[in-house]
Amino acid sequence: MRINNNVGMWAIRYLQNLQTQQNRQVQSLAQATIPIQQNVAFGAIAERIRSQINGYREAMASTYNAIGVMNVAEGGLQSISNNLQRMRELAVQASNGTLSESDRAALQQEFSQLAQGINRVVEQTTYNNRRVLGGDIRDMQVQLGPNEGQQMRVTLPGMDIKSLGLENVNLNSTENAQNALKALDRAIETVSNTRSYVGSVTNRLEGAARELSNTMLNLTSSVSVLTDTDMARGIMEWIRTRLQQQATVGILGQSNVNAQNVLRLLG
């Protein structure tokens, strides 16, 4: 028994409506931004919130870049500190007046290599092609929030041998070795103070990043409440429409409707 063409034509129209409905559902799920009851006020509020979110996103990028600079700086400072400590040990040994010339020369050779190593660390400790410990970080502005006045400025001193006051230090005599000890103690203190500064800046930046992240999460949730599709509901409606389509196609299969019409619909 075959269903008449009137039923078939009804099925075609119904299938067309279902196809249009499914297209809207797919678009809605893809964009996840349909207005609630087409409320213009909600849309305007959502746009303002999105603008705030963009500001917070830029602030987060600035903050995390600064954290990267501080982390790179800390790594370089650790290496410089290690070299300075070893140089101090050599200076203590060189302060012994009973050393032979060959012993003193050996100490001086290692001392010079360590000094060169410090300069090499300074040249190689870079972030975005800027020498973090070479004096390139001067009054660096970090945006900690989306609004004016929410900035901090960061400056890192140079940590090369000349900046540390060790350019003319050597262990060629007992007197020079003792003078080297004094210069090294000052340099070690400078590095220690800089590491403390880096640590405090890093803590502040990480705290700011957490606040920015939490605020962005809350704002994003607010936009979702105002504009986003209920994904579970949207998917269920899409599945229901799909099942209705399949059932309607089954009706068409029992009717005398022209096959070309069906293919055109499904295409």
Automatic annotation (TrEMBL):
Domain Flagellin C-terminal: 181-266
Cellular localization per UniProt: Secreted; Bacterial flagellum
Predominant location: secreted
GO cellular component annotations of the record: bacterial-type flagellum; extracellular region
Gene3D superfamilies recorded: f41 fragment of flagellin, N-terminal domain, Flagellar export chaperone, C-terminal domain
Swiss-Prot/TrEMBL keywords: Bacterial flagellum, Cell projection, Cilium, Flagellum, Secreted
MF GO annotations: structural molecule activity
Keyword Transit peptide among record annotations: no
Domain Flagellin N-terminal per the UniProt entry, residue ranges: 44-135
Keyword Membrane: no
Superkingdom field: Bacteria
Free-text function comment from the UniProt entry: Flagellin is the subunit protein which polymerizes to form the filaments of bacterial flagella.
Protein name according to UniProt: Flagellin
Organism: Fervidobacterium pennivorans (strain DSM 9078 / Ven5)
